Amino acid sequence: MNLELSEEQEAVRRLAEDFVAREVTPHAVAWDRAEEVDRAIVKKLGSVGFLGLTLPEEYGGSGGDHLAYCLVTEELGRGDSSVRGIVSVSLGLVAKTVAAWGGEEQKREWLPRLASGEALGCFGLTEPGTGSDAGNLATRAVRDGDDYLVSGTKMFITNGTWAEVVLLFARTGDTPGHKGVSAFLVPTDSPGLTRRAIHGKLGLRGQATAELVLENVRVPASAMLGPEGKGFAVAMSALAKGRMSVAAGCVGIAQAALDAAVRYAGEREQFGKPIASYQLVQELISDIAVDVDAARLLTWRVADLIDRGQDFATAASKAKLYASEAAVRAANNALQVFGGYGYIDEYPVGKLLRDARVMTLYEGTSQIQKLIIGRALTGVSAF
Ligand code: FAD
């Protein structure tokens, strides 16, 4: 694997760094306090091509490889994980899945709008009763002529109150377990679909997280994504690539923690010297630095495997597991360097820790990643 960035990749990284410095970082604390990112950011993300990365140009995408996608995601995560999540879900979980599984009409209908930011996507898998055991979901889609009538509740849906379309997973037919699940692209203004914003999150407070309730929502059969009964495979393929995106966002958090800790340690004086001169403070900083590098290398490896058409699912679980735990550790270590100032939100590191915490929970908890890795190594499913 070549660890040098190409000129093109470096240009994309710089574009993302400039964008984040101008459009994201200056507002991140205010958005966190207000519990709402300014929605204007979506169009801005679309206009610089960040919502269309890796998507084919014929469908409005901006092309690029998965390493470039990681670089942009890292910079966004460095600035504000709430904004990073908007892209990871709308592009990473929805648009890329439409590109991979969609028919020509579905691609033409949704990809140009999702890539430009004219429409936003959300991913409706989790339910109040099923999180880790997602294949056991209860939402039902019952055939009615040329349509399906869909009823059920989806929980913790990122972009939920903002999105124009939900990639929704529902049970079709009577087959129990994950084999009876199908995927649908459902416009969120469909009659019978209501949304309730979820407030009071520990982190990612700027993000529009919602509960979606569907009561006999009429969905044409042509909105099914992928074959009937293959919805769980659609979801798992989306999440495998999504985990790379979460991992890249975590690298961004850890890098931001490192930048902040080094800067503060040089400025803050105690016992007549900068705290950077104390070995125990340097230990905190060097632990963060090793976590940044290790998480970044694991994440880039996933991008490299995808771009070379190799199997990447286990590598993605390893990267997501390591990078999410590393982001929590790094933000916590940075908070220690800041002392009491780390505990108030005028300084950046408390938010990094709050935002990092959920990364070990969503798109498969750390325990679930370990079961995926363990199954790949032993051949035995321990779920
Ligand atoms: P549970 O599955 O109930 O797990 C509880 C605990 O039990 C965890 O520690 C877990 O690791 C452990 N556990 C469960 N099963 C096992 C096992 N077999 N072995 C060992 N331990 C086990 N979902 C979406 O569909 N779309 C979204 O956009 C989305 N965004 C989210 C945003 C936020 C902010 C949050 C908090 C969640 C989001 N989720 C989303 C849901 C998220 O993916 C789930 O919360 C996650 O999968 C865990 O499910 P759960 O919360 O039901 O926990």
Automatic annotation (TrEMBL):
Matching InterPro entries: Acyl-CoA_DH_CS, Acyl-CoA_Oxase/DH_mid-dom, Acyl-CoA_Oxase/DH_mid-dom_sf, AcylCo_DH-like_C, AcylCo_DH/oxidase_C, AcylCoA_DH/ox_N, AcylCoA_DH/ox_N_sf, AcylCoA_DH/oxidase_NM_dom_sf
Which residues belong to any copy of the Acyl-CoA dehydrogenase/oxidase N-terminal domain? 6-118
Q: Does the keyword Metal-binding apply?
A: no
**Which intervals hold domain Acyl-CoA oxidase/dehydrogenase middle?**
122-217
State the Gene Ontology terms under molecular function.
oxidoreductase activity
Cofactor(s) the record lists: FAD
UniProt keyword annotations, A-Z: FAD, Flavoprotein, Oxidoreductase
The catalytic activity of this protein is classed by the Enzyme Commission as: 1.-.-.-
Q: Indicate the segments forming the Acyl-CoA dehydrogenase/oxidase C-terminal domain, all copies.
A: 229-377
| PANTHER family registered for this protein in UniProt | ACYL-COA DEHYDROGENASE (PTHR43884), ISOVALERYL-COA DEHYDROGENASE, MITOCHONDRIAL-RELATED (PTHR43884:SF12)
Q: Which family does the entry's similarity section mention?
A: Belongs to the acyl-CoA dehydrogenase family.
In Swiss-Prot or TrEMBL terms, this protein is called Acyl-CoA dehydrogenase family protein
Task: Give the species.
Answer: Streptomyces flavochromogenes
What are the top taxonomic ranks of the organism? Bacteria, Bacillati, Actinomycetota, Actinomycetes, Kitasatosporales
